[in-house]
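Q: I'm writing up a methods section and want to include an example of the input and output format. Could you take the sequence below and give the corresponding predicted C-alpha cells, formatted cleanly so I can copy it straight into the document?
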Amino acid sequence: MALYDLPLPELERYLPDLDEPADLDDFWSRTLAEARRHDVVVDARPHDTGLRLIDTTDLTFAGFDGHPVKAWVTRPAGSQGQDLPAVVEYIGYGGGRGFAHERLAWASAGFVHVVMDSRGQGSTWGNGAHTPDEGGSGPAAPGVMTRGIEDPHRYYYRRLMTDAVRAVDAVRALPGVDAQRVAVTGGSQGGALTLAAAGLSDGLVGVMPDVPFLCHIRRAVDITDGFPYGELVQYLAVHRTAEAQVFGTLAYFDAVHLARRATAPALFSVALRDDICPPSTVFAAYNHYAGLAGQRPETDIAVYPFNKHEGGQGYQLDRQLRWLRSRVA
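A: Here is the clean output for your methods example:
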C-alpha cells in the first residue's frame, strides 16, 4: 500500500469538525449506571497454565447488563501480597482472549495484566474466545460492525464498550492491585476500546491506543475499501435508505468523541500506510484527545511511515513498557 492519506504535516494538525449527538454524555451515563448495578467480580479462580514464574487467574466479571465476560489475569508469581500497577488490554477485531500464556510481557515487567475477551468474537484469528454476545440485534453484515446498527441502544459496540469500562472496574476490585495505577491498551479494535475506556473511566494512569479503529468513522468509510469498515459499505449497499440512521448510531461510539472526554496521559501509534485504520482517522482522535479536559495531559504519538495495520509491533511494545514504567514509578 502506497501513501494514500494526507501528508504528515497536514495529519499533525488535522482537527476535523465533530458530529457528536447532543445526548452523548447522558447516553453513556445511563448505560454505565445500569451496568454498575451488578457486582463487578463474578468469579476469580486460579488457573494452572504450567508457567512457574507467572500466576494466572481465570476471571469472570459483569459487563453490559450484568452479562458474564471472561478475562485472563496474570501477575508475577508470588506477588499476591503486593498492590501492583495494572494494565487492561483489549483485543483486535475478530479475536478472543485465547490462552493465558500468549501475552506475558506486562506480567513479566511487574504488572497485573488483564486481557478482556471480546463478546461474540474469537473466530477470525487467534486461539478462540469464551464469551458469547448476550444481546439482541437485527440484520447484520458478516462480522459485528452492523449488529444492531438500527438503534444505538441495541448496537453491538454499546455492549462491548461497556464491557471495556467494566474491565477497569473489575481490575480495581481485585486484591493485589493498586487501583490508582491502572492503564489501558489495545490495538485496532482494542485501540478503540482503549479510547472508550479512557473517556468513560476516571483516574487512569495511562492510555496506550495502537492504530485505533472506530475513529472518525465517516471519513474512514469514505477513503478506505478495507474491512471491517467495508461491512458498513456492504450493509448500506443493501439498506439504501439507512445512511442517516447508521451514521447517527455510529456517532455514539466514534472513538474521537469518547477520546475528547479522556484526562489521562496517552501514547498513541499510527502507521501511514494503514489501509484498515486510515492515518487521518487516528490523528483525528489524537488531536482531539482530552479536548474537554481544560488542560491537555501529556500525549505523544509514534509514527511508523512504512507500515500498514501491523504498526510498530515489538517496537511499540518496547516503547510502551518504558513509557508506562515512568508513569507508575
